[in-house]
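Homework help board

Subject: predicted structure for assignment chain

Our instructor gave us this sequence and asked us to write out the predicted structure in C-alpha coordinate form, then describe one feature. I got the C-alpha coordinates but I'm not sure how to describe them. Can anyone check?
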Amino acid sequence: MKSATYELERIINNALEGKAPTREECIFMLDFPETSLEAGLIRATADNISRTRFMNEAIILGQIGIEIDSCPGGCKFCSFAEGHTKFTASSMSDSDLLAAAKSFNSGNDIFAIFLMAMHNFNFDRLLHSINLIKDNLENCPNLVVNIGDITKEQAQELKNSGITGAYHVCRLREGIDTALAPEQRINSIKAIKETGLDWYYCCEPIGPEHSSAELVEQLFLGIEYGCFQHATMRRIYLPDSPLADCGQITNLRLGQITAVVALASIACTDTRNIAVHEPNLIGLSSGANVVYAECGANPRDTTAETQNNRGMDISNCKTMLYDAGFTKLLLSGNRRKPLSEAYTERNI
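My C-alpha coordinate output:
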Protein backbone atom coordinates (compact mmCIF):
# COMPACT_ATOMS: atom_id res chain seq x y z
CA MET A 1 0.00 0.00 0.00
CA LYS A 2 1.33 3.41 -0.93
CA SER A 3 1.99 5.77 1.98
CA ALA A 4 0.02 8.92 2.68
CA THR A 5 3.21 10.92 2.06
CA TYR A 6 3.62 9.40 -1.40
CA GLU A 7 -0.04 10.03 -2.23
CA LEU A 8 0.16 13.67 -1.14
CA GLU A 9 3.33 14.18 -3.16
CA ARG A 10 1.54 12.83 -6.25
CA ILE A 11 -1.44 15.16 -5.74
CA ILE A 12 0.81 18.18 -5.22
CA ASN A 13 2.95 17.42 -8.27
CA ASN A 14 -0.20 17.09 -10.37
CA ALA A 15 -1.45 20.44 -9.07
CA LEU A 16 1.86 22.11 -9.89
CA GLU A 17 1.46 20.79 -13.43
CA GLY A 18 -2.05 22.27 -13.66
CA LYS A 19 -4.13 19.18 -12.82
CA ALA A 20 -6.77 19.81 -10.16
CA PRO A 21 -7.35 17.26 -7.38
CA THR A 22 -10.44 15.07 -7.49
CA ARG A 23 -13.14 15.02 -4.82
CA GLU A 24 -11.53 12.02 -3.18
CA GLU A 25 -8.12 13.69 -3.21
CA CYS A 26 -9.58 16.84 -1.64
CA ILE A 27 -11.12 14.77 1.17
CA PHE A 28 -7.73 13.10 1.64
CA MET A 29 -6.03 16.50 2.02
CA LEU A 30 -8.65 17.83 4.41
CA ASP A 31 -8.31 14.79 6.66
CA PHE A 32 -4.79 15.77 7.72
CA PRO A 33 -4.59 17.54 11.10
CA GLU A 34 -4.33 21.29 10.62
CA THR A 35 -1.01 21.40 12.55
CA SER A 36 0.60 18.63 10.51
CA LEU A 37 3.53 18.93 8.12
CA GLU A 38 1.24 17.69 5.37
CA ALA A 39 -1.30 20.48 5.97
CA GLY A 40 1.53 23.02 5.88
CA LEU A 41 2.71 21.61 2.56
CA ILE A 42 -0.82 21.80 1.14
CA ARG A 43 -1.13 25.45 2.18
CA ALA A 44 2.29 26.34 0.75
CA THR A 45 1.51 24.64 -2.56
CA ALA A 46 -1.83 26.43 -2.93
CA ASP A 47 -0.18 29.75 -2.08
CA ASN A 48 2.47 29.25 -4.75
CA ILE A 49 -0.04 28.23 -7.42
CA SER A 50 -2.47 31.08 -6.63
CA ARG A 51 0.26 33.73 -6.66
CA THR A 52 1.33 32.54 -10.09
CA ARG A 53 -2.24 32.16 -11.36
CA PHE A 54 -3.36 35.61 -10.16
CA MET A 55 0.00 37.33 -10.82
CA ASN A 56 0.43 38.15 -7.12
CA GLU A 57 -2.40 40.65 -7.41
CA ALA A 58 -4.85 41.15 -4.56
CA ILE A 59 -8.42 42.44 -4.42
CA ILE A 60 -10.25 44.50 -1.82
CA LEU A 61 -14.05 44.40 -1.76
CA GLY A 62 -16.21 46.74 0.31
CA GLN A 63 -19.47 45.31 1.62
CA ILE A 64 -22.23 47.56 2.99
CA GLY A 65 -24.99 45.91 5.03
CA ILE A 66 -27.89 48.18 4.11
CA GLU A 67 -30.58 46.78 6.42
CA ILE A 68 -31.34 44.71 9.50
CA ASP A 69 -34.45 42.64 10.09
CA SER A 70 -35.66 39.47 11.76
CA CYS A 71 -35.01 37.04 8.92
CA PRO A 72 -37.35 34.09 8.23
CA GLY A 73 -34.41 32.23 6.70
CA GLY A 74 -33.80 31.12 10.27
CA CYS A 75 -30.10 30.37 9.75
CA LYS A 76 -28.74 28.93 12.97
CA PHE A 77 -25.40 30.66 12.40
CA CYS A 78 -26.72 34.17 11.64
CA SER A 79 -27.20 37.07 14.06
CA PHE A 80 -30.31 38.23 12.14
CA ALA A 81 -32.22 34.93 12.21
CA GLU A 82 -35.81 34.94 13.34
CA GLY A 83 -36.05 33.26 16.72
CA HIS A 84 -32.74 34.31 18.22
CA THR A 85 -31.83 37.75 16.81
CA LYS A 86 -31.28 40.58 19.30
CA PHE A 87 -31.46 43.30 16.63
CA THR A 88 -34.23 45.81 16.01
CA ALA A 89 -35.23 46.29 12.37
CA SER A 90 -33.56 49.23 10.64
CA SER A 91 -32.48 50.43 7.19
CA MET A 92 -29.56 52.59 6.19
CA SER A 93 -30.61 56.06 5.05
CA ASP A 94 -29.68 57.31 1.59
CA SER A 95 -27.21 59.78 3.07
CA ASP A 96 -25.53 57.13 5.23
CA LEU A 97 -25.39 54.67 2.32
CA LEU A 98 -23.79 57.22 0.05
CA ALA A 99 -21.32 58.24 2.76
CA ALA A 100 -20.31 54.59 3.26
CA ALA A 101 -19.85 54.05 -0.49
CA LYS A 102 -17.77 57.22 -0.83
CA SER A 103 -15.64 56.23 2.15
CA PHE A 104 -14.90 52.80 0.68
CA ASN A 105 -14.05 54.34 -2.69
CA SER A 106 -12.13 57.40 -1.46
CA GLY A 107 -8.70 55.98 -2.21
CA ASN A 108 -9.69 54.20 -5.43
CA ASP A 109 -8.42 50.94 -3.92
CA ILE A 110 -11.40 48.60 -4.33
CA PHE A 111 -12.53 46.23 -7.03
CA ALA A 112 -16.22 46.35 -6.10
CA ILE A 113 -18.79 47.62 -3.64
CA PHE A 114 -21.19 44.95 -2.35
CA LEU A 115 -24.70 45.82 -1.24
CA MET A 116 -26.00 43.26 1.26
CA ALA A 117 -29.67 42.93 2.18
CA MET A 118 -31.75 40.38 4.09
CA HIS A 119 -33.06 37.18 2.49
CA ASN A 120 -36.46 38.89 2.13
CA PHE A 121 -35.70 42.28 0.65
CA ASN A 122 -37.46 45.12 -1.17
CA PHE A 123 -36.37 44.82 -4.79
CA ASP A 124 -37.39 48.38 -5.70
CA ARG A 125 -35.45 49.78 -2.77
CA LEU A 126 -32.41 47.79 -3.85
CA LEU A 127 -32.63 49.28 -7.34
CA HIS A 128 -32.96 52.72 -5.76
CA SER A 129 -29.80 52.11 -3.72
CA ILE A 130 -27.91 50.96 -6.81
CA ASN A 131 -28.91 54.06 -8.77
CA LEU A 132 -28.08 56.30 -5.82
CA ILE A 133 -24.51 55.06 -5.76
CA LYS A 134 -24.08 55.03 -9.54
CA ASP A 135 -25.38 58.58 -9.91
CA ASN A 136 -23.39 60.10 -7.07
CA LEU A 137 -20.11 58.18 -6.80
CA GLU A 138 -17.21 59.50 -8.83
CA ASN A 139 -15.17 56.74 -10.48
CA CYS A 140 -17.75 54.18 -9.35
CA PRO A 141 -16.24 50.69 -9.06
CA ASN A 142 -18.03 47.45 -9.89
CA LEU A 143 -21.32 47.01 -8.01
CA VAL A 144 -22.26 43.57 -6.65
CA VAL A 145 -25.25 42.39 -4.60
CA ASN A 146 -25.44 39.91 -1.72
CA ILE A 147 -29.18 39.24 -1.41
CA GLY A 148 -31.80 36.50 -1.03
CA ASP A 149 -33.08 34.22 -3.73
CA ILE A 150 -33.98 35.83 -7.05
CA THR A 151 -35.58 34.92 -10.36
CA LYS A 152 -33.89 35.10 -13.74
CA GLU A 153 -36.01 38.16 -14.53
CA GLN A 154 -34.76 39.91 -11.41
CA ALA A 155 -31.18 38.93 -12.20
CA GLN A 156 -31.58 40.46 -15.65
CA GLU A 157 -33.03 43.64 -14.17
CA LEU A 158 -30.10 43.88 -11.79
CA LYS A 159 -27.68 43.48 -14.66
CA ASN A 160 -29.54 46.15 -16.66
CA SER A 161 -29.23 48.48 -13.65
CA GLY A 162 -25.45 48.24 -13.77
CA ILE A 163 -24.78 45.41 -11.33
CA THR A 164 -21.80 43.27 -12.43
CA GLY A 165 -22.13 40.33 -10.06
CA ALA A 166 -23.96 38.59 -7.22
CA TYR A 167 -22.89 36.58 -4.18
CA HIS A 168 -25.06 33.53 -3.63
CA VAL A 169 -24.38 30.26 -1.87
CA CYS A 170 -26.01 26.91 -1.25
CA ARG A 171 -24.49 26.65 2.18
CA LEU A 172 -23.31 23.80 4.33
CA ARG A 173 -26.33 21.90 5.66
CA GLU A 174 -28.72 24.18 3.79
CA GLY A 175 -32.26 23.15 4.72
CA ILE A 176 -31.01 21.67 8.01
CA ASP A 177 -29.26 24.60 9.68
CA THR A 178 -31.49 26.96 7.68
CA ALA A 179 -35.17 27.15 6.75
CA LEU A 180 -34.26 27.56 3.06
CA ALA A 181 -34.49 24.95 0.31
CA PRO A 182 -31.23 23.95 -1.42
CA GLU A 183 -33.09 23.74 -4.73
CA GLN A 184 -34.20 27.34 -4.40
CA ARG A 185 -30.64 28.47 -3.70
CA ILE A 186 -29.32 26.60 -6.74
CA ASN A 187 -32.07 28.02 -8.95
CA SER A 188 -30.91 31.51 -7.96
CA ILE A 189 -27.34 30.55 -8.81
CA LYS A 190 -28.48 29.36 -12.21
CA ALA A 191 -30.32 32.66 -12.76
CA ILE A 192 -27.15 34.59 -11.92
CA LYS A 193 -25.05 32.49 -14.28
CA GLU A 194 -27.57 32.48 -17.14
CA THR A 195 -27.85 36.26 -17.00
CA GLY A 196 -24.10 36.66 -17.38
CA LEU A 197 -23.42 38.20 -13.97
CA ASP A 198 -20.20 37.33 -12.15
CA TRP A 199 -21.09 34.69 -9.58
CA TYR A 200 -19.39 34.93 -6.18
CA TYR A 201 -19.45 31.70 -4.15
CA CYS A 202 -18.04 30.40 -0.88
CA CYS A 203 -17.56 27.25 1.18
CA GLU A 204 -19.42 28.44 4.28
CA PRO A 205 -20.20 28.71 7.12
CA ILE A 206 -17.61 26.17 8.28
CA GLY A 207 -17.78 24.73 11.78
CA PRO A 208 -15.88 21.96 13.62
CA GLU A 209 -18.77 19.54 13.05
CA HIS A 210 -18.49 19.56 9.25
CA SER A 211 -16.74 16.51 7.82
CA SER A 212 -14.18 16.66 5.05
CA ALA A 213 -16.69 14.97 2.75
CA GLU A 214 -19.33 17.63 3.52
CA LEU A 215 -16.87 20.42 2.81
CA VAL A 216 -15.81 18.90 -0.49
CA GLU A 217 -19.37 18.29 -1.66
CA GLN A 218 -20.28 21.91 -0.94
CA LEU A 219 -17.15 23.53 -2.37
CA PHE A 220 -17.37 21.55 -5.63
CA LEU A 221 -20.73 23.13 -6.43
CA GLY A 222 -18.82 26.35 -7.06
CA ILE A 223 -16.51 24.57 -9.47
CA GLU A 224 -19.26 22.69 -11.30
CA TYR A 225 -21.35 25.81 -11.94
CA GLY A 226 -18.33 28.02 -12.64
CA CYS A 227 -17.90 30.67 -9.95
CA PHE A 228 -16.09 33.93 -10.62
CA GLN A 229 -14.92 33.99 -7.03
CA HIS A 230 -14.48 30.99 -4.77
CA ALA A 231 -13.91 31.45 -1.06
CA THR A 232 -13.99 30.03 2.44
CA MET A 233 -15.64 31.39 5.57
CA ARG A 234 -15.59 30.03 9.07
CA ARG A 235 -18.68 30.28 11.23
CA ILE A 236 -18.20 32.89 13.94
CA TYR A 237 -19.17 31.99 17.50
CA LEU A 238 -22.41 33.78 18.43
CA PRO A 239 -23.27 33.10 22.09
CA ASP A 240 -27.05 33.15 21.64
CA SER A 241 -27.23 31.17 18.40
CA PRO A 242 -28.44 27.55 18.16
CA LEU A 243 -25.01 26.40 16.94
CA ALA A 244 -23.01 28.14 19.66
CA ASP A 245 -22.19 24.86 21.42
CA CYS A 246 -20.57 23.52 18.25
CA GLY A 247 -17.72 26.01 18.60
CA GLN A 248 -15.51 27.60 15.96
CA ILE A 249 -12.63 26.34 13.80
CA THR A 250 -9.20 27.97 13.96
CA ASN A 251 -7.77 30.22 11.28
CA LEU A 252 -5.17 27.51 10.73
CA ARG A 253 -7.90 25.00 9.81
CA LEU A 254 -9.56 27.67 7.68
CA GLY A 255 -6.25 28.13 5.87
CA GLN A 256 -6.07 24.40 5.13
CA ILE A 257 -9.61 24.46 3.68
CA THR A 258 -8.79 27.62 1.71
CA ALA A 259 -5.80 25.82 0.22
CA VAL A 260 -7.91 22.86 -0.88
CA VAL A 261 -10.47 25.24 -2.43
CA ALA A 262 -7.68 27.01 -4.31
CA LEU A 263 -6.25 23.71 -5.59
CA ALA A 264 -9.66 22.35 -6.59
CA SER A 265 -10.39 25.62 -8.40
CA ILE A 266 -7.58 24.93 -10.85
CA ALA A 267 -10.26 22.97 -12.72
CA CYS A 268 -12.48 26.07 -13.08
CA THR A 269 -11.33 28.57 -15.68
CA ASP A 270 -14.19 30.91 -14.62
CA THR A 271 -12.59 31.41 -11.19
CA ARG A 272 -10.57 34.64 -11.16
CA ASN A 273 -9.85 35.04 -7.43
CA ILE A 274 -10.06 33.31 -4.04
CA ALA A 275 -11.34 35.02 -0.87
CA VAL A 276 -11.06 34.17 2.81
CA HIS A 277 -13.56 35.35 5.46
CA GLU A 278 -12.84 36.91 7.77
CA PRO A 279 -9.56 38.37 6.45
CA ASN A 280 -6.46 36.82 8.00
CA LEU A 281 -2.81 36.34 7.09
CA ILE A 282 -2.92 32.54 7.24
CA GLY A 283 -5.65 32.41 4.58
CA LEU A 284 -3.74 34.94 2.46
CA SER A 285 -0.70 32.66 2.51
CA SER A 286 -2.81 29.57 1.72
CA GLY A 287 -4.16 30.44 -1.73
CA ALA A 288 -6.48 33.40 -1.07
CA ASN A 289 -5.90 36.84 -2.59
CA VAL A 290 -9.13 38.70 -1.65
CA VAL A 291 -10.27 40.44 1.53
CA TYR A 292 -13.51 42.22 2.41
CA ALA A 293 -13.86 45.52 4.21
CA GLU A 294 -17.29 45.79 5.86
CA CYS A 295 -19.59 48.41 7.29
CA GLY A 296 -23.24 48.52 8.32
CA ALA A 297 -25.00 45.27 9.17
CA ASN A 298 -23.03 42.01 9.38
CA PRO A 299 -24.56 38.56 10.00
CA ARG A 300 -21.43 37.51 11.92
CA ASP A 301 -21.58 40.47 14.31
CA THR A 302 -23.62 41.48 17.33
CA THR A 303 -23.38 45.24 16.78
CA ALA A 304 -25.45 47.19 14.24
CA GLU A 305 -22.35 48.90 12.81
CA THR A 306 -19.76 46.22 12.18
CA GLN A 307 -16.96 48.70 11.52
CA ASN A 308 -17.07 49.41 15.27
CA ASN A 309 -16.41 45.73 16.00
CA ARG A 310 -15.60 42.89 13.56
CA GLY A 311 -15.53 44.68 10.23
CA MET A 312 -12.19 45.80 8.80
CA ASP A 313 -11.72 49.13 7.02
CA ILE A 314 -9.88 49.69 3.73
CA SER A 315 -6.69 50.85 5.42
CA ASN A 316 -6.41 47.68 7.50
CA CYS A 317 -7.16 45.56 4.44
CA LYS A 318 -4.33 47.20 2.50
CA THR A 319 -1.92 46.66 5.37
CA MET A 320 -2.87 43.00 5.67
CA LEU A 321 -2.44 42.40 1.93
CA TYR A 322 0.94 44.15 1.96
CA ASP A 323 2.04 42.07 4.94
CA ALA A 324 0.92 38.94 3.05
CA GLY A 325 3.37 39.81 0.26
CA PHE A 326 1.02 40.98 -2.51
CA THR A 327 2.50 43.60 -4.80
CA LYS A 328 -0.50 44.99 -6.71
CA LEU A 329 -4.19 45.72 -6.24
CA LEU A 330 -6.59 44.76 -9.03
CA LEU A 331 -9.24 47.44 -9.44
CA SER A 332 -12.45 47.71 -11.42
CA GLY A 333 -12.06 48.26 -15.15
CA ASN A 334 -9.05 45.91 -15.17
CA ARG A 335 -6.92 48.69 -13.69
CA ARG A 336 -4.06 48.08 -11.28
CA LYS A 337 -2.06 50.00 -8.73
CA PRO A 338 1.07 49.04 -6.81
CA LEU A 339 0.66 47.82 -3.25
CA SER A 340 3.62 49.14 -1.33
CA GLU A 341 4.17 50.20 2.25
CA ALA A 342 3.46 53.77 1.17
CA TYR A 343 -0.20 52.77 0.67
CA THR A 344 -0.70 51.01 4.00
CA GLU A 345 -2.03 52.36 7.29
CA ARG A 346 1.49 52.78 8.65
CA ASN A 347 1.98 55.67 6.24
CA ILE A 348 -1.49 57.25 6.15
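Reply (TA_rk): Your C-alpha coordinates look well-formed. For the description, you could write something like this. The two ends are 58 Å apart (CA to CA). That's the kind of observation they're looking for.
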